[in-house]
Amino acid sequence: MAAKIKKGDKVVVLAGRDKGKAGEVLQVIPKDARAIVRGVMMVKKHTKASAQSEGGIISKEATIDLSNLAVADPKDGKPTRVGFKVLDDGRKVRFAKRSGDLIDG
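The chain above was modelled as a monomer; its predicted structure follows.
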């Protein structure tokens, strides 16, 4: 099945402790149906000092389930569902069902 959410998309969190937050998708893990979104699902990680980095507590993004994410509408930024259509030149593109605008350029 074609990917509805891709790296670089602007998404809105629909459920969980970060409900309502928006961010950019940094990585998608299709095998686990999860994604990493900038500024969302922040966790504290205790790290040991190494030659490259100092130890301490760092904040980083954890993965969030794809079912809890929706693509932000290009027109107004609100969550929308994603549809697919084939253009006249043969390209298959994603579009926002809320406004009808193309998500892919």
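Residues 10-96 form a domain with the SH3 type barrels. fold (CATH 2.30.30.30).
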